[in-house]
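Wed. Picked up where I left off yesterday with Biogenesis of lysosome-related organelles complex 1 subunit 1. The coffee machine is broken again, so keeping this brief.
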Amino acid sequence: VNQRKLDHEVKTLQIQAAQFAKQTGQWISMVENFNQALKEIGDVENWARSIEMDMRTIATALEYVYKGQLQPSTSW
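Structure written out below (tokens, as returned):
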């Protein structure tokens, strides 16, 4: 009788351990996906900063050219 009880408990424990292992694998997958999403957000943020710096450079150059055209020409 005790052996049957032990066998039943072992089987129950094995099932629970397998379910826990499966759940743990799902959690690990979720964390890895979350980390990947964070990396992608960081990539987009860096890309946006780069574009912003390029646009500022272009705006400064255009402003410089525009102001230069407004100055009267003294090279006659």
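Quick read: The mean pLDDT is 92.
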